[in-house]
Amino acid sequence: MIQTVDELPITDRDPAAMSNDALHAERRDTFDITMFQDVEDELLDATLDRREAIWDEMASRVDAEPPACPECGAQSWTQTFGKPKECVACGLMLESDHEELIEEITEYWSTVELLDGNLYLGGATDDD
Ligand SMILES: [Zn+2]
């Protein structure tokens, strides 16, 4: 079990100066911590902050925008494992009556996640 911040697999590198591969690797590490490790709140907060900084940098490198919230227009979504997607700004929970929007958000998140994968694919798609 991880007990101190020093043991966390996070760094203080500037995300903007990191390679796509480095961002991808550190994001995966932070994801494992938040999903699978039993850690103290303080460590979890540090990990979540780092994960957010890395995610923001990854999002800035893809040519895609998250869809807007139909209630407030914000473009920021979150999801706790096993729960519906939720607007960060107004708290709107997306249930089955927002299926299209849920799909658009999932697609956007995949686009950011695949930052690294897209490089390997060289932009080619199966439709070619
Ligand atoms: Zn909203």
What's the gist of this structure?
This protein is mostly helical. The chain has two domains: 17-61; 65-123, no CATH class. The chain contains four helices and two strands; from the N terminus they run ααββαα.
Write structural notes for this entry.
This protein has about 130 residues and is mainly alpha-helical. The protein has 2 domains: about 15-60; about 65-125, no CATH class. The chain contains 4 helices and 2 strands, in the order H-H-E-E-H-H. It has a two-stranded antiparallel ribbon with strand order 1-2. Helix 1 packs antiparallel against helix 2. The radius of gyration is 16 Å and the shape is globular. The protein starts with 19 loop residues before the first helix and ends in a 7-residue tail after the last helix. The protein binds zinc ion. Zinc ion binds near residues 69, 72, 74, 87 and 90.
Helix proportion range: 40-55%
In DSSP terms, counting alpha (H) and pi (I) runs of 4 or more, how many helices?
4
Please give the radius of gyration in angstroms: 16 Å
Oligomerization: single chain
Q: Which percent band covers the strand fraction?
A: under 5%
Could you say which overall geometry the principal axes of the C-alpha atoms support? globular
Spatial strand sequence of the major β-sheet: 1-2
**Unique bound compounds:** zinc ion
Order of helices and strands: HHEEHH
Summarize the main sheet.
2 strands, antiparallel
Determine the structural class based on helices, strands and strand pairing.
Answer: mainly alpha
Mean pLDDT: 86
The span between the termini is 47 Å
